[in-house]
């Protein structure tokens, strides 16, 4: 069994041409490895700066080496 872990953070998000309503908080939701995580709410102003990281973990019960995990992920994504 192998365990895969991914962690990420962003310096900022920019979307030219996109308008976010003033005074409403927004959040970022990410679905990865059959897990859904959301950030805390933040200001709706570009560039969006997210001050937290997300951590995704998945155990691959039948994998015996990292190459097997890579093959599983390539087939799914």
UniProtKB/TrEMBL annotation:
Keyword terms of this UniProt record: Phosphoprotein
The record's Gene Ontology cellular component field reads: sperm head-tail coupling apparatus
Q: Which GO biological-process labels does this protein carry?
A: spermatogenesis
| Keyword Ligase in annotation | no
Give the molecular function GO annotations: myosin light chain binding
Q: Which InterPro entries match?
A: SPATA6_fam, SPATA6_N
- Where is the Spermatogenesis-associated protein 6 N-terminal domain positioned along the sequence? 13-76
Does the record bear Transferase in its keywords?
no
Provide the family line: Belongs to the SPATA6 family.
| Protein name per Swiss-Prot or TrEMBL | Spermatogenesis-associated protein 6 N-terminal domain-containing protein
